[in-house]
Design a protein that fits this description.
The complex is a heterodimer of chains A (263) and B (322). Chain A contains ten helices and eight strands. Chain A has 263 residues and is α/β, with parallel strands linked by helices. Chain A has a domain of 30 residues. Chain A has an eight-stranded parallel β-barrel with strand order 1-2-3-4-5-6-7-8, surrounded by five helices. Chain B has 322 residues and is α/β, with parallel strands linked by helices. In chain B, strands 8-7-6-5-4-3-10-9 form an eight-stranded parallel sheet. A two-stranded antiparallel sheet of chain B has the order 1-2. In chain B, helix 7 packs parallel to helix 10. The chains are: A alpha/beta (263), B alpha/beta (322). Chains A and B meet through loops of A and helix 6 and helix 7 of B.
């Protein structure tokens, strides 16, 4: 499973302030720190307080790109800002984060993904809301895959997110999300990739790190390919590195946890 | 109806590694050897690139090794003289010379590091191909010997070994300081293979300077273990495991020529046929099996096995129309 580092987000105070003052330093420090922690992607998000995302987001992309060669997950639902950020990124391999399962959004974003050779995070959510059953979530995944083909994208250009809800308020959703991941890996060949916003599972619980890493390992067993999470949570990264071994995704060696972080 | 070929897509590839240095590159070689660069499983050229052909290193030693009589027939005139022996191997088509400094072993003459360095220098002066230098196998002696050889051949971009899990520091440091490539050997164990590469990298020698020796087993003596390690390592590398992305060398001659099928005389086993033909085939077959497993450098002894192996490799390198 690949880690999409969540820290470059205007919701965090230091990053919010840095965006307001266009001070590159905190963003660049977190870019380096998250890579050292074990991140394979860096999520970049202005947070809710940006006055103009079409200016702030490309600025963020540029300053992060200066210090890190990791691919970036561009995190916004403002698709004008998304396009400006993709232009600033200027190379294939970005991750568009994200769209819901609504035709007009798909029609706006998939052509952009094809044009800039980016992958897309697709959320199993539509205007009605988040479906409860795995079956309804997988139906949305299939809708995304069918659309991908129409726009010249491969199924594995999609990172489908079954949507994770907090275990303390929506306990029955956890198993459905896991089942969704399992089934998504069977709907096409190659199958779509899968992703989750990991920390959603532990919202408002006093045991967040424990719940996060337990769910991460369970979801990996179901076929999870990536998660937006805290790349500097050492116990989480150790658990992911260990689960990769047991799933035979990495070849064992005594320094495996360290090597995983150097990927 | 047109069929769509299902092809694997890989994210990683094998490192490209050059052994030897020409005058312009700071050495004295007239040719260099570059191996690796593969981005597919062996010879599946419809799925990826295999840009460089496999190569043969022919083995010599600094003292008469008392080899198999069939090998003695070929090398009788040169076997006491490493310089003449090396030249002979180049005539036989060796892409590299592999010299084992067996005479440095305390039980085998205990040659001084300086004497060994001189032999290596003499061989370098006599042939233009790149050279692989291996210690005598005595850990303590090799730790003293190999740094001296590495320094004497500074600039030549040797492949020098063996680095092993319990003894890699002094030789890896010597390779790093004097800019040679390092031969890292693990005992038929993919986990130790990977760990050793990590340990060497942590010392400061970049992974791009390492060649893997996974330990070779001959046909009939566990070749399938070597094969499966080659396969596992290659799959790991293609999936992006940087600590398994090194090209591979297989020491075939040593293993094949001590197999019963090579050593048994026709007198004792009349049904097995001519001993010389059989022994040569045993070496060639072991090499061709490991070639299909993904090895890049084959260390061989008999010129006829070299010829057969090269012919086989050439045929496999032809890109199929798929």
């Amino acid at each position: 499973m690949l880690i999409i580092g969540e820290r470059i987000n205007g919701m965090f105070k230091d990053i919010g302030l840095a965006i307001r003052e266009h001070d590159p330093k905190p963003l660049q420090e977190w870019a380096v720190k998250q890579k050292e922690g074990g991140a394979s992607y860096l999520d970049v998000n202005t947070g809710p307080n940006s006055e103009d995302q079409t200016i702030d987001l490309p600025w963020m992309i540029n300053v992060v790109k200066e210090v890190s060669d990791l691919p970036l997950a561009i995190d916004t639902t403002n698709y004008d800002a998304m396009e400006a950020a993709l232009i600033a990124y200027g190379k294939p391999g970005a991750l568009i984060n994200s769209i819901g399962c609504e035709q007009e959004k798909i029609d706006r974003v998939f052509p952009m993904a094809a044009k800039y050779q980016a992958d897309v995070v697709c959320l199993c959510i539509n205007k009605v809301g988040i479906p409860k059953s795995a079956e309804d979530r997988v139906a949305m995944a299939m809708e995304f895959v069918a659309n991908a083909e129409a726009y010249g994208l491969q199924p594995d250009n999609l990172f489908i997110d079954p949507i994770i809800l907090p275990v303390n308020v929506a306990q029955e959703h956890g198993v459905e999300a896991l089942e969704t991941i399992r089934q998504i890996k069977m709907i096409s060949n190659p199958p779509p990739k899968t992703t989750v916003g990991l920390s959603n599972i532990s919202q408002k619980s006093p045991f967040r790190p424990l719940i996060n890493r337990t769910f991460a390992v369970m979801a990996m067993t179901a076929g999870l390919d990536s998660a937006i999470c805290d790349a500097n949570d050492e116990a989480l990264v150790d658990a992911i590195a260990t689960a990769r071994l047991i799933l035979n995704q990495d070849i064992y060696c005594d320094s495996y946890a360290k090597v995983f972080r150097q990927r | 109806m047109a069929t769509n070929m299902l092809k694997e897509r890989y994210s990683g590839k094998i490192n490209t590694v050059t052994i030897g240095a020409t005058k312009e590159q700071g050495g004295t070689r007239t040719s260099t050897v570059t191996v690796g660069g593969d981005s597919t499983m062996p010879f599946l050229q419809f799925e990826g690139e295999m840009p460089l052909k496999p190569v043969v290193a022919m083995e010599i030693q600094d003292i008469n090794p008392n080899w198999h009589p069939v090998l003695n027939d070929v090398y009788a005139e040169v076997i006491d003289n490493p310089v003449a022996w090396a030249k002979k191997c180049v005539e036989f088509g060796a892409d590299l010379i592999y010299i084992k400094l067996a005479g440095a072993h305390p039980d085998n003459g205990n040659k001084s590091p300086e004497d060994c360095a001189k032999i290596v220098k003499d061989v370098l002066a006599a042939v233009g191909v790149p050279v692989i230098v291996i210690g005598c196998g005595d850990e303590e002696k090799d730790n003293a010997l190999l740094p001296v050889v590495a320094e004497a051949a500074s600039g030549e971009n040797l492949l020098i070994g063996l680095a092993k899990q319990d003894s890699y520091k002094s030789i890896a440091a010597a390779a790093m300081v004097h800019k040679h490539k390092l031969l890292a050997q693990s005992p038929l164990d993919i986990n130790i293979c990977k760990q050793l590469n990590i340990l060497i990298s942590e010392l400061g020698l970049a992974p791009e300077n390492i060649i893997i020796d996974p330990a070779t087993a001959a046909l009939g003596y566990g070749i399938e273990y070597t094969y499966s390690i080659l396969e596992r390592g290659r799959l790991g590398a293609l999936q992006g495991d940087k600590m398994l992305s090194m090209p591979v060398i297989c020491q075939v001659g040593y293993e094949a020529w001590r197999a019963k099928e090579a050593c048994a005389t026709e007198e004792d086993f009349p049904n097995w046929g001519n001993q010389a033909e059989r022994a040569i085939l045993w070496e060639a077959m072991t090499a061709s099996g490991l070639l299909q497993g993904g090895a890049h450098i084959m260390v061989l002894r008999h010129p006829e096995a070299v010829r057969l192996f090269k012919k086989n490799a050439e045929q496999l390198m032809i890109k199929p129309e798929i």
